[in-house]
Automatic annotation (TrEMBL):
Coiled coil: none annotated. The keyword NAD does not apply. Gene3D superfamilies: Alpha-D-Glucose-1,6-Bisphosphate, subunit A, domain 3, Alpha-D-phosphohexomutase, C-terminal domain. This is Phosphomannomutase/phosphoglucomutase.
Amino acid sequence: MADADLSQLVKAYDVRGVYPDQLDEGLAELFGAAFAEVTAAREIVVGHDMRPSSPALSAAFARGATARGADAVLIGLCSTDQLYYASGSLGLPGAMFTASHNPARYNGIKMCRAGAAPVGQDTGLADIRARVEEALGTGLPASRTGRITTRDTLASYAAYLRGLVDLGSIRPLKVVVDAGNGMAGHTVPTVFEGLPVDLVPLYFELDGTFPNHEANPLDPKNLVDLQARVRAEGADLGLAFDGDADRCFVVDERGEGVSPSAVTGLVAARELARHPGATVIHNLITSWAVPEVVREHGGTPVRTRVGHSFIKQEMARTGAVFGGEHSAHYYFKDFWNADTGMLAALHVLAALGATDRPLSELLGAYQRYTGSGEINSTVADQPGRTAAVRARYADRDDVAFDELDGLTVTSKDWWLNVRASNTEPLLRLNVEARDAATMAAVRDEALAVIRADAPA
């Protein structure tokens, strides 16, 4: 622990690394102490996912916090949005032990201030890291020992979510849910209890070794089982959650994947019906359709960088009612500006259950363009390759550039965005166009530049 490399462990928005090589109980205890100090908390709430290492790590974090005088409320097994619920409803800073969709050998910590306010590099995480670095090798002298209590928040979390969406008069729906052996297997049965839903569970057994497939629905190969089951069951839709169940992906009745941008548009329209004229946040690689739908429903779209810290900051700054990202993170003012895929899923159920139309038809109004999805390329010189992409289009009069997050190139018929990964030698490309042929041409041209050995 004394020689722990925090530069490899502390990311832009959270702490994440291999257990126990990079993150062990001793280090988790130091993070708990630092978290209590930086938040000046008298009490914190701590939860964890189903990974084998999570209970011990979360208990160590709580010990560290109590060594700095804070009381700790342990809520045990939970989804990340259930931890945000606990932080918001109890008014306490919180910590969630999870590595989300990462493989079993990983674990990590997502932290928030009271009211589920984000903790990222600019909002406390850098200070927490600095205090942990100071404590490495020196031990953890106690100032005043706080107490540890336990609390079950699952039932109240489920009731709170159901209270935000009118599901009382929806038609019966058959829904396949792929929990990926993650925390949705714990939360979905309670959240869906009493709803007119014929639930078909897929991989609900909690197993942090992920024996069936990675709990990462962003990768199409991890949706194959859900898509096949939806078709086999003749279900109305399918839902897929990631490991900590804060992201939700949707599959329609044909077994076709639904773009998170389409879900963002649908939920935005529903939230604007409740809050006329409100603001909706979207990141810069969601579909053109999202700001169009927001304006068509009388709202104000606000474009922001990718990443939950940026979204949450803009939600707070603008008073937005809702925010959506391409990665299937959905943020709600009614949920302390935090992200909850479960609430987005309930909105989809409510919208579908209020009509006799199939989901593919219902979502047609929100799927207007053709997107490439996110394509990653291993690139040593990320700035150089990004500059090469800009140079490729620099002489064209019909394009505009902006650098809000990476490089965005926009034409009347297409746009592309190239962003560098914060943690890996990768460039991430997203392309959208008015038709599939244009999208493919722009995608292939940009990839050729990004992946070229010589300067373009």
